[in-house]
Amino acid sequence: MARYPPTPKLTVDAFWVARGKLLLVRRGRPPFPGRWALPGGFVEAGETTEEAVRRELKEETGLSARAGPLLGVFSDPRRDPRGPTVGIVYHMIGSPRVPRGGDDAAEARWHRVTELPPLAFDHDRIVSEGLRQRRRFSALRPPT
Asked: Is 115 one of the catalytic residues?
């Protein structure tokens, strides 16, 4: 059997903004216990990244949404202290409801995008990019 070199782990994150608020989870486990992060986690064998982001969102917040446009791919080898990861982040589309923390999330809550807490991993960079994209997309929409 062929041997493959060690490679980064594949992760997904959900970027969901509704009514000026961003959905975040407070981490219940290391790394960064107690810090806020985008809902997400590792992709499991046999699932697409879109399936994985929906599953992680449901497990960590109790909410359902569909994966919308790709926000970006983040691959800095230092983004996770457990080892190198490649994160695929999606804009999520759905009807916002009251979340509840589950799985490894101690809490889930909508935060005003103007009053975000300190974030874990490289999620501050991801959120900045996601908000920039939202402003650009909304500027392109014709007036109604």
From this structure: no
Task: Determine which one of 50, 107, 115, 129 is catalytic.
Answer: 107
- The C-alpha angle 48, 23, 92, rounded to 5 degrees, equals 35
pLDDT digits over 9-63, tens only? 999 999 999 999 999 999 999 999 999 999 999 999 999 999 999 999 999 999 9
- Between strands 85-93 and 9-15, the pairing is parallel
Residue 144 clears pLDDT 60, i.e. is over it: no
- Give me the phi and psi of 14, to 5 degrees please: -105, 120
H helix runs in 1-144, sequence order: 49-61, 123-140
CA 88 to chain centre: 8
Structure tokens at 122: 């490289």
